[in-house]
Each structure stands twice: as structure tokens, then as C-alpha cells.
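Provenance and format

Records in this collection were gathered into a single text stream. Each protein contributes a sequence line and a C-alpha cell line. The two records reproduced below are adjacent in the stream.
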Amino acid sequence: MWSGRRGLLRSSGCGVEELRCRRREREAALRKARREQQLVSKRLLRDEATEEAEGGCVVVILGEAEIQEFLRLAQRGTEEKERERALVSLRRGLQHPETQQTFIRLEGSIRTLVGLLTSNQALLQLEAARCLHELSHSEQSAVAEACLPATSYLLTYLSGHSSDFIELCLYTLGNLIVESEAVRRQLLPQGIVPALAACIQSPHLTVLEALGYALSQLLQAKEAPEKIIPSASTDSLVLGSTLPQHILQLLQPGPKLNLGVAVEFAWCLHYIICSQVNNALLITQGALTTLGLLLLDLAAAVQRTEDAGLELLVCPVVRCLSNLLTEAAAETVGGPMQLRDERVLAALFILLQFFLHKQPSLLPEGLWLLNNLTANSPSFCTSLISLDLIEPLLHLLSVSNVVSVLVLTVLCNIAEKGPAYCQHLWPGLLLPTLLDTLALSDTEVVGQSLELLQLLFLYQPGAAQAFLQQSGLQALQRHEEVAQLQDRVHALQQTALHG
């Protein structure tokens, strides 16, 4: 995850600026890796009550003749109930991949289904949409592309009056979007962004959640940074529409905040930020403030409830904050100061404890945010010390090597602020802690420990001598290049004595 460790053990001088530069390069590489980790998925919306009413029938693979007969009855049946039953039977069959393949190979099958989708009979429309939804859930891209003739109608129905029907159309579009670039190429000129922007004002939570899903699928497309997100004078692209402002409104903490809706749109915001198209715009629209307040609200919530779903929202919120703090615009508009230093740090440590006990895999996310908060902010480093948070931070070193590297990086951020900060770090618990980390076999942890030692030696004249007296070098003799390390320690000691 981190690179360039071998260079830390050279015997030549190494200043604070060079150390800072190396660390920022490694952090940039890590951010890039995290941006490339997308969460592409498909969702299947089925009405449980309807499934039970239909007797939970076993899915039967349909052949060409059966499909053709169901389509004929749905199109030309003498009674509406008969036509509806035919579509229900077809929908059940389309739950099987083999039936889906047979269906799209039949000439005119999609055209017939689209015709039923556009009929003036609501029940037939609904069942035809459910059939398309089953097709959209297919893992075969050919099946998704076969649904292309229906996309313009699905978009049109987003402005309808039935929230259930709109929800179904949104999930179907979301499934199709993620499957095929051909689908996205067709949807963009058809006006999917303005259609979604109109939907986001819906009062129905189920619609908003489905909308968040569809939008997140669109934003994860590989061509999104160039063709979907960029600012423009037209509202056909995301940053040129009202979507960002509405997303931030839906993430405002308070009694109206809905967890399911917030989770979907927090990921949408994450994908927009990761595109790095125009994060300055988001910051000027108040993204940092909104996310900071939401972080405080989540920290309070995890103390009140055992609800295991909160981590689903905490993760994208923390990632959004972490990435926005790396932007130059964050400093221009007040950056970390918008986040109310001590309150944010206290909230973040509450969440770190929550992660530690409930979701350890999210600890690196919280520590990455702490790293970005402290990287260029002496006030946050001061708050860490004044709130006595160094000791809880050190306790996290035993969790894993990945966590250890991030904890040590935060400590480096503090140490590089100068002698006054180093006085609060050294020796205390840090000296025995570093002796332990230097004895580990993980080169990443050892490398970051050495980097912290270098900063301490530069700023604390007595640190090198204290380290030697505590037999720190003995803990390092199992590592390669120990002779070079000894030269480095003595060189740093001389720098501290004469500097």
C-alpha cells in the first residue's frame, strides 16, 4: 500500500520537508487505489406479498413456444385478467437465466413487451415493467442491451404519479446502467440526469432510495468523469444540475434524515468527489460543513443505539470528508476550521471505538480521515494533545499492521509540527511503543516507525540519546541495513546537538 521505504535508511541527511514530501506521495497513491475500488452491484425488487399470493411457485424454464404463447395472450387475450396472468407467468419464467436468453433471441419479444409497457392499462403496464426488471437483473450484458428500446419509456414514467411504479423504473434503470455502456450512451441524450434531478424532489422515501441507487450506478461508470459528471451550462450533466445541492440537503442531520436514503446519496457524493472533476464547487456549496455536522450526529447516534446499520452511512461520510480535505479549495474556504476542531476529533474517536468493537474493517477509514485532518492543521494536532487522545491512538497499534501504519502516520503529522509538539509525544508511552513496533517483521510498520524517530531526533535533542539508552537498536538488529540505521541515528543525533 505504501512504497519507498528503503530510502529511509540512507546515511545522508534527510530534512522534514523531504519526509513530508514522501509521505504525501504515498498518500496520493493510496487515495488513487481507494478511488478505484467501486461498489458496482445490481438489485432485485420483488413484492413479497405478491410472491406469497402467487403461492411461491417454483421457477420453471420456459421454451420458445411457451414464451410466444404468453406474449400472445398478454397482447390479445379476451379478458384483462387473462392478459395479466400471462404476464405474471412470463415474469416467473424470466427469473431463470435460460429463459432470459431464449426470450431475447425471439424476434419481436422485446417490442411486444415495450408495447405492453406503454398500454393504457395500469396492471398490464406494471407487469410488463416487472418483466423488464427481471431482465435488467441478468448477469449477461446482451440481455441488458436487449432492453434498450424500453429505456426512453422508463425515463418518461419517472414523472408519473405512482410511487411504486417510479421505484420499479428506477431500480430497473439502475440495473441497466451498470451493465452496459451502450445503455448509458443512449440514456444521456435521452435526459436521464434532468429526469433524476426532477425525481429527487419526491416526498416518497422509497423513490428517493431507488433514485440514489440509480444515480450511484451512473456515477460509477468509467466514463463518468468525462461524460456524466462535469460542470456545464446545461443541466444534462450532474454538476450542472440541481443534484449536488439536493444531495447535500438529504444529508443534513436532523429528525428528517432517513438512513436508507442517506446511505445511497452519501455514496453518490463519494463517487462525485472521487472523480475530482470540480470538488471546489462542492466545497463552496457547503459539503464540508454538511458532512462535518453529519459526522457529529453519527457519533451521537452510535452512543445511543446498537443499530448495526449505522456503519453503512459512516463509511461513505468518512471517505467523502477525507477526500475533500485533500483539495486546495478546502484550505481556501476555511477547510478544517469549518469542521469545528475539537468536536470533530471527539466524534471521530467515538466512531473509532465503535469501529474497533463493531466493525474493525472500517478503522483504516477513520484513521485516514484523522491523517488528513492533522496533515496540514496545527490546530487539530493541538486538539489531539489537549484532549488526551494520543494514548487511545497508541492503543490501536495492536489491531493490525494496516492500522499501525496509519496511526504512526498521524503521529508523524504531529511530530513534524515542531519541537513544542514533540515534547508532548516523547518519551511517555511512545518510546516503549516504538521499541515494540520496530521489533515487528512488517516492513511498512517498521519504516513508518523509523520515519517518526527521524522527526523526533530532529526536534528533540535528547531523543536519540534516550532511544540508544533504552536499547532501541537491539530491537532493530534482526532487520537488514542495521549498520546504515546506526549511521543514520548518530547523524541525526549530531544534527540535533549542533542544529
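Adjacent record:
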Amino acid sequence: MLLPAPARHLPGLLLLLWPLLLLLPPAAPGPLARATVRRLGTRVPGGSPGHLPALATPTRAPYSGARGAGVCKSRPLDLVFIIDSSRSVRPLEFTKVKTFVARIIDTLDIGAADTRVAVVNYASTVKIEFQLNTYSNKRALKQAVARITPLSTGTMSGLAIQTAMEEAFTVEAGARGPMSNIPKVAIIVTDGRPQDQVNEVAARARASGIELYAVGVDRADMESLKMMASKPLEDHVFYVETYGVIEKLSARFQETFCALDPCVLGTHQCQHVCISDGDGRHHCECSQGYTLNADQKTCSAVDKCALNTHGCEQICVNDRNGSYHCECYEGYALNADRATCAAQDKCALGTHGCQHICVNDGAGSHHCECFEGYALNADKKTCSVRDKCALGTHGCQHVCVSDGAASYHCDCFPGYALNDDGKTCSDIEEARSLISIEDACGCEATLAFQEKVSSHLQKLNTKHILF
């Protein structure tokens, strides 16, 4: 049955418009299902300290463009598309394959330090359309893909894989070496049964470190796809019935090359800070002054003084809930800034505690001393009597002699003698003079008395004789 004229001309019209269509922004891709991409460790706050953020319901997010910025980022890859352009792939179908390739490119971060892309075109022959180091920007890549044309008959899938392994995944062609830890990925798209052996060459490619994805369309042989693909097969083998729906597979590869960032989505449950580790993974950290608890999500206040970020000039004192305050050494006072200290004169303030005398030593320090005759006790503040003679309360007329703590006796200057009161003194010469005078008087009286007695005895004797 003949189609209306507009319908008959539609395929040709699409071929003419296709290069322009490739330059249009891609349609919104499908939902993200699996996280396998390495992310940068960006900090995303998860809430104020002490408050656990509300858990967000996991949402589906776009992969690229303004809406998905910060949520999905492709990991750096060395990516080679191996596309079947044999005669069984009609021109419009081949255009669909190129759309599929272009849409995957749209989801990638293209650049010399990011993902590099090459295309291997094959049928009965193999042609490397461009190498990994040919283009370093997305626009040029998509334009190069749009210019690719089909080759001829035949489906030499094994040869195409071998060519990619030996010529496209080389350092000379722009592949990064094993020390770079950049994955090597190949996506082969075919709609038929390989006309050569693929099992052995695919095994060698996988052994060399190439991760193989196999996309089968329409009449593609499923067993051959499984022979080519890496394991697990459920993640590396895809099949669509027609080229008309192959573009939808681009979303599946977005799932492979992109990852949801739980830190951005707010599903991390970190109390303070969420750190993205890549591959859809993350870990929690805490704000300064807090430490991560055993649940690896919540935070507890730590010793802010121990962090040495307190700003206290002299003493930092921890308070509850991760706070602190500053104090000063003895003899210093806290300034108005509540952090620095100024020296105090405790002697002038009267807060020294000295019993007798406070001596200011400067820089906020002091020491105690005692009055004369007292000694400083072990507490360095109080005093005890040491020499009562020194106190001047002894009562000695001449000399006070200390006999130890609180004990003494009096003595006299030379030429003096201590009186009976034990305190006063008398001149020795004057005493002798007085004694001499008294003695002389005593002798005269004695002699006069003796003479008087003798005279009386003589009178008595005379009378006795007369009678």
C-alpha cells in the first residue's frame, strides 16, 4: 500500500534535519536508580548543631542540566562506543543509534580530565571514527557523532572489540594508564549475530580491564550478547525490540554513570555536616567543638578548651553543651573582652590574706611578711611570735635576752646587778659604799656596847670584893 506523499518523504526529511536536532538540548532523562559514580567531597550542611534535620523522602532527581546540578556527576571514564552499521541497520535506525550515543554524551562531564569518548564503527570492516583524545568538549563530540555514516554488509563484532582493545584503548590514542585509576568502558550496539568469534576476544578485553556493555536490538543474538558483556550480566546486557526505543536506554546508562548525592538530597541523616564520598556514598562529620557519636550520624559536645581555639589568654573552663568561659591566674582579673587578663595588686585590694604585711611583687603576685619578732608560718600568710625581746614588751630595765620562742630573761649592763624583781638593775659600787658605811657604824656601836658591858662588870666585881 502506498503511503501519502508527506509520509513517504518523512525519513529523508528527518535525515536532513538530524544534525540540527543533535544540537538541541536533550530531553529530560529518566529517573536515577543506582549509584556507581565517584563524587567529590563537598560539604553540605545538614542542620544546626544540636538539631537533627528532618528526614526527607527519597526523591527521583534529574541527572544533568540546571535542575540536576550538584545531584548527579559522571565519573571520569575512557568510553568507547562500538556501533554496528551493517546493512541490516537501516539509515533511520542508524540515526537512532547516533541519537542514543549523543544522549549518553549529554549526561557525561566531557573533558581531558573528565570523560573521554571514542567511536568505533564496524560492519565487515572496522573504522575508528575518532579517538579518545580527538575531542575534549561536548559540542564537538556530538557534531562528530552526527557525521558518522554506515559502512557496509557484515557483522564482525569480534574484530571490532579487538580493534577497540588494541587501537582505541591505548595511551597513544588518549586512554589513561593504569596508574590513573580511570575505568575503561566499551558499549557495543548490534542488531545481528556476529559473523566471527567473540567469546575469546571479549574475554581478553575484559581481562585487560575493559568493562563491556552489550546492547542488542531486534534480531540480536542474546547468547552472543552474554558472551561479550562483563558480569554481572543483568547489569551489562540490554535488549530492545526496535531501534525506535533504543534512546530510552540512555537513561539506564545514566544510572550507571551517575549517582545520587544524599548530601544534596537531604537524605543523609547527618546531624551537622554531610560529606559526599562518591559512588553515592557519604559520611557524617560534626561542627567544631563536637564529636561524632557511635551511630556515625549524631554529634556530642566535646572539650572546646582542648581544641585550643577558645581564645582564653590564661585559663579555659569547659561548661556544659560544648560551651566554655575564660578565667585568670591568681593575681589577675578578666578584662572586658572576657578572654584576656590584667594583673591585679592584691595588696592594695586587701585580698592578700597576709596577717601582718603584704608585699606586692608585680605582675599580679605578692608575698606575706611578719613584723619584727614574728616568723612567717608554713601557710605563708600568718605569723607567730619569734622573739619577745624584740617586741619591746619584756620590761627589762637594761638588757632582754631571748631564750627561744616566747621566752626571755633580763640582764644588766656591766657594773650593775639585777635586782630581786628580775627586771631592774642597781649600780654595784653604790651598793658596796652603802654596805661599808653600815658596817662602820655597826662596829662603833658594838665597841661602845662592849665597853659599856666591861665597865659594868668591873663595877660589880669591885662591889663583891668590898663585901
